[in-house]
Design brief:
- With 733 residues, the chain is an alpha/beta fold.
- Strands 1-2-3-4-5-7-10 form a seven-stranded mixed beta sheet. It has a six-stranded mixed beta sheet with strand order 11-18-17-16-12-15, sandwiched between helices.
- Bound molecules: beta-D-glucopyranose (BGC).
Length: 733
């Protein structure tokens, strides 16, 4: 055992990781909570067998060719409510970007897809995130589902993470607020939203077996803080524990994660469901805090939360009170989120309205990274050569359980890859067609980009070349490197050499390396753009809307700058083989210094920093002041639109603790201003960002001393700084 690993396990004990099993059934049901009360009444009349049945969902169909169970609609899982209980069956569907139709099991299973989670987060707009969540929540409800497996809040610790596109980014505050807002939106539609994958499922490599090893204190200040803030913001009815192990113990039988942190410290009243195939025991998992086994008939080695758990109760290994608590938590969430009083009413989806939501989300989330000589917005009368990325037909999406079947069908026929997740799916929202519609007086040609010489000829004949470049990422596998797919790097370099007025539109699952960066005039990071993506991109390029996205992940100059330059065991081999690499350990010795904090701590210069994003106007800030009153650090400043177009600025406040360490995002504001307009802005800093987590006493502690406060356009902006003295203070966890 490595030394650092031993230290983590020891400090885990100090942190209460080995919490007494008694805490497992010490429920935290708030007295007077109406949902709790209603649940108690229902459960008072329920037999032990019926209670037990609430703890186990079955595969909903589409899993390795399985069919939907009787009563199930065809989705990730199904749970039949006990007869006569008055409770609804649980129709459980993936995922965080829209309603999935696994293996096309439902006849009319296509739905509207949001852009990637990174895109929604890059808007820094909690209202937009909430509206996006409400849209997919409504589609879930109209499709007959009442539980949505969406709300991914793992930190994107590594820019090669296969599922980063389902998450929000590398900062706990930003992630917590943005994902929490999406969750609140989903739940506004009487659908339970599931905060996942709890916790440290930050990589896909060996995800079924890997132990993410980290000092629990650092975990509380990073990944767990993100989950904590998402929980407070969104109040999800369920939390999904992840596949991986954390400090040796599987997340779904990890008492520190489930009992101590989630239920005891954060007073979480809802239920914990396992990821599909993440339950490994009956008594151990139940006592550690798992409340419901998901798709246990297909996904797990054995159906643990059925006869085996009943036998545990009979033998006294699990007290009946713990079973009662599990059932109480589940039924409470059904009442709290309105599932009992507002059962889904199936109806055709309002595709036009919903696609507009997805489009606006993308318009706010795309990030303008480069705009030399104001090449953007494009002139509406220019000769434009559009090149590559299947821009003639659609936009790419990420693969895996968050993949939505496109309305209108798939528009790019791939090679027919049999292995999970199959060929990349393109949504039929063509940027080329949208650009032609947006600028009918422009002359816009298309070249597929497959032959570089032909693309170069097209670029030479045009005023501007717009190259679309993709990076397909998917659940189950991390990107083996940070390159764009196929010949994109060579294509862009050649096109830019032929015509320096080249703009690159990137549709990527992750940050990528951009070896051609300084030779192109413009770069728009469009992420996975979603169902309205083509239109959104065209409107951004022609200035119908101004870009307002800001990065939530650092773009490094090279993989050597990363905390972990290599992902141990990542290969381009069969994805299943990779997920099950045995006995992998990943020691996160960078602790809570994730992403920009790692760069700050090590004085590394990124290619594009966290928080960065351009627009079509300019802003100036001044008058920075920081004051500490009523135990609250408040930062005020003025923002002014100094350009000639209306625009949105996202000024960010970063803080530095008196005892050093990397800077932390403390808050932000999204400000819309007309040309010449200015506004005074006030940002309150979440006290946990001013504190260290004190593992010994299980609380946050703000040290006394001078805190630095930066007002920045990104995490590397040092132009405006003040300091403020804070007294020492402790906060309950
Ligand atoms: C994924 C979850 C998903 C579940 C059900 C798992 O493989 O990790 O995110 O919700 O499958 O499809």
């Amino acid at each position: 055992m490595k030394l650092s690993r031993k230290i983590f396990l020891l400090s885990a004990v100090a942190c209460g990781m080995m919490v007494a099993h008694d805490a497992a059934h010490a429920a935290h049901h708030a007295p007077g909570d109406p949902a709790d009360e209603k649940a108690r009444q229902v459960l008072a009349h329920m037999s032990p067998e019926d209670k037990m049945s609430l703890l186990f969902s079955v595969d909903g169909g589409g899993f390795n060719g399985s069919v939907a169970p009787p009563g199930g609609l065809g989705s990730a899982a199904y749970l039949r409510a006990p007869a006569g209980s008055g409770l609804p069956d649980l129709q459980i569907s993936d995922a965080g970007l829209g309603i999935r139709n696994p293996a096309h099991i439902r006849k009319d299973g296509a739905a509207v897809s949001l852009p990637s989670g990174l895109s929604t987060a890059s808007s820094w707009d909690m209202d937009m995130a909430r509206e996006a969540g409400a849209m997919i929540g409504r589609e879930a409800w109209q499709s007959g589902f009442n539980v949505l497996l969406g709300g991914g809040a793992d930190l994107t610790r590594d820019p090669r993470g296969g599922r980063n596109f389902e998450y929000a980014g590398e900062d706990p505050l930003q992630t917590g607020r943005m994902v929490g807002s999406t969750i609140a939106g989903v739940q506004s539609q009487h659908v339970i939203s599931t905060l996942k994958h709890y916790a440290m499922n930050d990589l896909e490599t060996s995800r079924m077996t890997m132990s993410a090893d980290i000092d629990p204190v650092a975990m509380r200040e990073s990944d767990l803080l993100g989950f904590e803030i998402a929980l407070e913001t969104g109040h999800p009815g369920s939390v999904m524990c992840s596949y991986n192990r954390v400090n040796d113990l599987y997340a779904c039988e990890n008492p520190y994660l489930l009992n101590t942190t989630l239920k005891q410290d954060w007073h979480y009243p809802g239920f914990v469901m396992s990821d599909w195939g993440a339950t490994h025991s009956s008594a151990r998992a139940a006592l550690a805090g798992l409340d419901q086994e998901s798709a246990g008939d297909h996904a797990d080695a054995r159906p643990y939360f059925q006869a085996l758990l009943a036998a545990d109760v009979k033998a006294g290994r699990v007290p009946q009170s713990r079973i009662d608590d599990m059932a109480q938590r589940i039924v409470r969430s059904l009442f709290a989120q309105g599932l009992v009083d507002h059962p889904p009413q199936r109806a055709p989806l309002d595709v036009v309205t919903d696609t507009l939501v997805a489009q606006r989300d993308e318009e706010e989330g795309a990030v303008l990274l480069r705009n030399e000589g104001n090449i953007l917005p494009l002139s509406p009368t220019a000769r434009i050569a559009v090149i590559g990325g299947h821009a003639d037909v659609g936009v790419i999406s990420g693969g895996g359980s968050s993949q939505v079947d496109p309305i209108g069908g798939e528009v790019v026929k791939g090679p027919g890859k049999k292995d999970w997740p199959g060929d990349p799916v393109y949504f039929p929202s063509s940027p080329l067609k949208a650009m032609r519609a947006e600028a009918p007086s422009a002359h816009i040609t298309y070249d597929p980009g497959t032959n570089i010489a032909a693309a170069v000829r097209a670029a030479r004949a045009a005023d501007v070349a717009v190259v679309y470049a993709t990076q397909f990422t998917f659940e189950g596998m991390d990107a083996p490197n940070m390159h764009l797919d196929g010949n994109a790097d060579a294509l862009i370099a050649a096109v830019a050499a032929a015509n320096p007025r080249t703009v690159v539109v990137m549709e990527t699952g992750d940050p990528v390396l951009m070896p051609w960066n300084s030779s192109v005039a413009g770069v728009l990071e469009a992420w996975f753009p979603g169902s309205g993506g083509g239109t959104a991109i065209a409107r951004l390029l022609f200035g119908k809307v101004a870009p307002s996205g800001h990065l939530t992940m650092t773009f490094p100059q090279a993989e050597s700058q990363l905390a972990h330059p290599d992902i141990a065991g990542v290969t381009a081999n069969n994805v299943f083989e990779m997920q099950f690499h045995t006995d992998q350990e990943l020691v996160y010795d960078e602790g809570s210094d994730v992403g920009y904090r790692w760069f700050d701590r090590n004085h590394l210069k990124p290619l594009y920093p966290f928080g960065y994003g351009l627009t079509y106007t300019t802003f100036a800030t001044d008058g920075l002041a920081a004051g500490y009153h009523h135990k609250q650090l408040t930062v005020t400043f003025n923002v002014r639109n100094t350009g000639t177009r209306p625009g949105v600025d996202v000024p960010q406040v970063y803080v530095g603790l008196p005892d050093g360490g990397a800077r932390r995002l403390g808050g932000w504001q999204r400000v819309t201003l007309a040309p010449g307009e200015s506004r005074q802005v006030s940002v309150q800093v979440d006290p946990r960002l001013l504190a260290h987590f004190d593992g010994r006493h299980d609380r946050w502690a703000i040290p006394s001393g001078r805190f630095r406060v930066w007002l920045g356009t990104s995490a590397v902006d040092d132009s405006q700084q003040v300091s403020v003295h804070l007294p020492a203070r402790t906060l309950a966890p």
